[in-house]
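Thread title: Can someone regenerate the structure for this chain?

I was given the following input by a collaborator and told the matching structure tokens would be attached. They weren't. Posting the sequence so someone can regenerate them.
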Amino acid sequence: MNGKQLSVSKAANSDSSTVPTAASSQKQPSIPLKHFIIKHTFKNISKIPADKRVFTDEEEHFGIKWSLQICYLANCLACFVKCNEPVVTQNKLSDTNIEMRIGKKGGGKKCQEITTVIGQRLPNGTAVRTWLFNRYIEWEQLKKEFLIDDDLVIEFFFEIKKMTGIYKDNLREFDETMEEFSDVVLVVKEQKFFVLSKFLAAQSSYFKAMFLGHFDESSQSEIKLSGIDADDFQNYLEVLYGEPAIDEYTVEGILMVSDMYDTQSVIRKCEEFLLKESKKTLKKKLAMAVRYNLEKLKSKCLSEVTDVNILRSVIPGDFRNMEQSILADLLEKSLSFQ
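Best answer:
Regenerated them for you:
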């Protein structure tokens, strides 16, 4: 199959289930699929003793657990990001961008960005799992310019470009060995997937419009997809073809792709996994339920919020990050505890 390559992308953080428009043949900006934000408010900063680290609770994203730390070190603020997943001692997440932002009192932010390889080996054989933003802000400057009521708000923006050795082995191949059983090639970050267009069209309104609608793509044999991860697309296709590809590590990426391409059958299977098998925290499940409109999962999560302590555990460090609808539900819950 040697047809022209065309680029089709949809914003990865879009909540819309729209399908390609006539402009879909034009290359659009690609938003990285594996991206997330950890935001935390550290309180009583001026009371932190020298050299003592203050930790946040763990947050799980794409099957990996993360936490933040700050420290008063050599008269400066030091900030740490830690990957708490033991699997990185044997495998890697590569090409990870981490950007830290701290807001100033009068507006504006101080930012710093690093690119790192999670799990890379040091000469002594240990795997790197902690990154230090050292001597980031002098302590006196911090108190004058950044603290609000002795609180410090820090945001970390993560972009994971490639995960290596974390996912399971492929359960089904979509490479050149499947060429004679396919009629179109989908290309994701240089990786080719040989698939049947009508099978995808029957499962996804996005692909139905692409392959059966009046768009340039419907007549092409090779199409480039942007804004998604090749491993996530592999896992998504495996679920479509009936393979048991959903697990704690893959479910979030599969959900993102299936939501992006409006594939309700895969979304239902992911929701079923989260309802019956997943060991993710209640906070994580609720966040995923809200993001992907998983109503059954949302109802189950809310039913498990039975006291004030559980309510507090599902609220993020900055509750303003939560959607208004779920805030209203949690407020109603809180009133029932009184």
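The first strand starts at residue 7 and ends at 9.
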